[in-house]
Write a structure and sequence with these properties.
Layout: H1 8-11, E1 15-17, E2 20-25, E3 29-35, H2 40-51, E4 61-64, E5 67-73, E6 76-81, H3 86-89, E7 93-97, E8 102-108, H4 112-117, E9 133-139, E10 142-150, E11 153-159, H5 163-183, H6 187-194, H7 206-216, H8 218-228
Antiparallel strand pairs: 1-2, 2-8, 3-6, 3-7, 4-5, 5-6, 8-11, 9-10, 10-11
Helix pairs in contact: 7-8
Length: 239
């Protein structure tokens, strides 16, 4: 008999780091909808009558109470939450139960967008990816469905077999964003993070001068800047 084991990565959830929360959610039923040719409008009317939602346009979410309909690709959508009313919908679309295929992860908090920006190629600025938007995209190397359902809240549908990897990637990004926020935004802190070798050694502003020079002439001056940093004595702008 097959023995199922809990994923150690998901056992640590919910996880709170730097004011952000990563958690697993129970989405209820997940049903893929693929309308028959020319039946999109009829399917939308049937969805409205049966579940209070409409068939969504590209990249959009239609929600009503516990029911949501998420765009998931060309002429495809997911009905999430209630069990589908097959009697009302089957004449207008092919219905496929996908509940066992996906795990649903939530990421909430003021730094959530910065976390996702480290892993996802989408433009996540609110004027582009607003509340009520959804997209099929990448999270690291994993194909996911990403939805924004709150100002600082995102839902990530990830293939169930990749849940542990997704949690580890997100947790690592959360720690990075939290550490960067904790380090402050002063110029010296950012310089220390980006270029540890350009720290001031002898004389205020030495590291900043070397950092500026290295940005303009990286191949020629970076090795010399490292050597100068080890020499006792004043640092001049003539490096």
């Amino acid at each position: 008999m097959v023995r199922l084991l809990a994923n150690p990565a998901t056992q640590a959830l919910p996880l709170e780091i730097g004011g952000m929360t990563l958690s697993l959610t129970d989405p209820g039923h997940i049903t893929a909808l693929a309308p028959w040719r020319g039946a999109g409008a009829a399917l939308s009317r049937a969805l409205r009558a049966a579940h209070g939602v409409e068939y969504p346009g590209p990249g959009r979410i239609s929600a009503a109470g516990a029911a949501r309909c998420l765009w998931s690709g060309r002429e495809q959508a997911f009905l999430v939450g209630p069990a589908p009313d097959r009697a009302a919908l089957a004449d207008h679309a092919a219905l496929t139960d996908q509940g066992d295929a996906w795990a649903v992860i939530r990421l909430d908090g003021t730094g959530a967008r910065d976390v996702l920006a480290r892993l996802c190629p989408l433009d996540l600025r609110p004027q582009v990816f607003a509340t009520g938007h959804t997209a099929r995209t990448l999270l690291g190397h994993m194909k996911v469905a990403l939805s924004r359902d709150a100002v600082d809240g995102y839902e990530i549908m990830v293939p169930r077999s990749m849940t542990g990897t997704a949690v580890e990637e997100l947790a690592t990004a959360m720690r990075g964003v939290s550490a960067r926020a904790g380090a402050g935004n002063d110029r010296e802190s950012l310089t220390r993070q980006a270029h540890p070798w350009s720290l001031p050694v002898a004389g205020a502003g030495c590291g900043v001068v070397l950092h500026r020079a290295a940005r303009r002439f990286p191949s020629a001056l970076v090795p010399r800047a490292r050597r100068v940093g080890t020499v006792a004595g004043p640092c001049t702008r003539g490096v």
